[in-house]
Write a structure and sequence with these properties.
Elements lengths: L2 H9 L12 E2 L1 H11 L4 H7 L4 E3 L12 E2 L23 E6 L2 E6 L10 H5 L9 E2 L3 H4 L7 E7 L3 H7 L1 H10 L1 H26 L5 E5 L12 H21 L3 E5 L8 H7 L3 E3 L8 H8 L4 E6 L1 H7 L2 H15 L5 E5 L3 E2 L5 H14 L3
Parallel strand pairs: 1-13, 2-7, 7-8, 8-9, 9-10, 10-11, 11-12
Antiparallel strand pairs: 3-6, 4-5
Helix pairs in contact: 6-7, 7-8, 8-9, 13-14
Length: about 350
């Protein structure tokens, strides 16, 4: 069974030959994994770890297969641009050395101080006319046996990068006119951007993923009413886009978003990621919702992968597989989807090797 076949069978709530697996990680983690496993290319690394999904933005979300930038001269789109979403919104990224290792952080939100829509209109908003999508389909051919996932869109979280979380929250509560302006700008751009990708390459793409954190560790970031007012119409538009091209729709949200899961299912979300175990019990989520939505994630990063022993990782991986794998509908992945520099590579390798050895049906 190829990786593509394996993932598609799991997404149809059927049991493939083994549990499929997915990984994203920072460039520092990718480098350490390649050195440890003595491989050179991203494809070699994914194969060595028995991973089934290829993210079009690359493992590190910055060095993937993306449209060629062909717009006006723009410092945010270097010649080797590989999919960083910060480029769209003119946000600087910088490398930061912390006590936990290297991280990639962002400069302050560029539009945090605006108070009127007229000020927002002066911003150099991205245009899909800046991009040449024609080579994507050909470039994806070498990944034919992987399940290909298109990522990078957002209808909520990315707005906070441009506006600021605090300011957007205030807008949503007190100034819906400017809040809706931001929501529409982001949704309309991403909808057209991915529509052009799917028109030319959709037959090769299995999953379309949006990253929108609606949860904190123990509760929602926004109320269900705010979710319905601002998010639902835009989210539904993106879900419909995926389904129009027979592509599965994945919604990423960290935190405790259990209250919203029935709404996600009603809207047509096919896959929920990452089922963060520090916020929600993956076993309970599988029991309650597993017949209606596929799940990805569930392996604790905050506790087990970062601070546990290799044996702890193996035991937890087996435990999660035991509960999540039956009946299909599960893709193994960390409970935070982008592995950071603080996670020991030995634990990462132990998780994926255990999933391969133990994950056969």
């Amino acid at each position: 069974m190829t990786s593509k076949e394996r993932v598609l069978k799991a997404l149809n709530h059927k049991e493939p030959d083994k549990v499929p697996a997915h990984m994203n990680a920072t460039k520092w983690v990718v480098k350490k994994l390649k050195n440890t496993l003595q491989v050179q290319s991203d494809k070699d690394l994914l194969e060595a770890l028995h991973i089934d999904v290829y993210d079009m933005r690359g493992i590190d979300l910055h060095t993937g297969i993306v449209p060629r930038y062909a717009g006006p001269e723009n410092e945010f789109f270097p010649e080797n641009w590989g999919g960083s979403i910060c480029s769209f919104w003119r946000i600087k990224e910088f490398e930061n050395k912390t006590i936990a290792g290297w991280t990639l952080d962002m400069k302050p939100p560029p539009l945090s101080s605006v108070t009127e829509i007229n000020e927002c209109k002066k911003f150099k908003w991205p245009s899909c006319e800046w991009f040449d999508f024609s080579a994507l389909s050909k470039q994806l051919e070498k990944w034919y046996d992987f399940s290909i996932m298109a990522t990078g869109g957002s209808v909520f979280q990315h707005i906070t990068y441009l506006r600021g979380m605090d300011k957007l929250m205030i807008d949503m509560a007190t100034n819906p006119k400017i809040a809706n302006y931001f929501f529409d700008k982001f949704t309309d751009f991403y909808h057209e951007y991915y529509k052009r990708i799917f028109e030319l390459s959709g037959e090769k793409i299995d999953v379309f993923a949006l990253a929108d954190d609606f949860g904190m560790q123990n509760n929602l970031l926004i109320s269900p009413q705010m979710f319905d007012n601002y998010v639902v119409p835009r989210l539904k538009k993106m879900i419909n886009l995926a389904h129009d091209y027979n592509i599965y729709f994945l919604l990423h949200s960290c935190g405790n978003i259990k209250t919203l899961i029935p709404r996600f299912i009603e809207l047509g979300v096919d896959i929920l990621d990452p089922v963060q175990p520090e916020s929600m019990d993956p076993v309970e989520i599988k029991k309650e919702f597993g017949d209606h939505i596929c799940l990805r994630g569930g392996i604790s990063v905050q506790n087990i992968l970062t601070h546990g022993s290799i044996q702890d990782v193996k035991d937890e991986t087996k435990r999660v597989i035991d509960y999540m794998a039956p009946g299909g509908g599960y893709i193994l992945s960390p409970g935070h989807p982008v592995l950071q520099d603080e996670v020991p590579v030995e634990n990462i390798i132990a998780m994926y090797e255990t999933a391969y050895e133990y994950g056969f049906y």
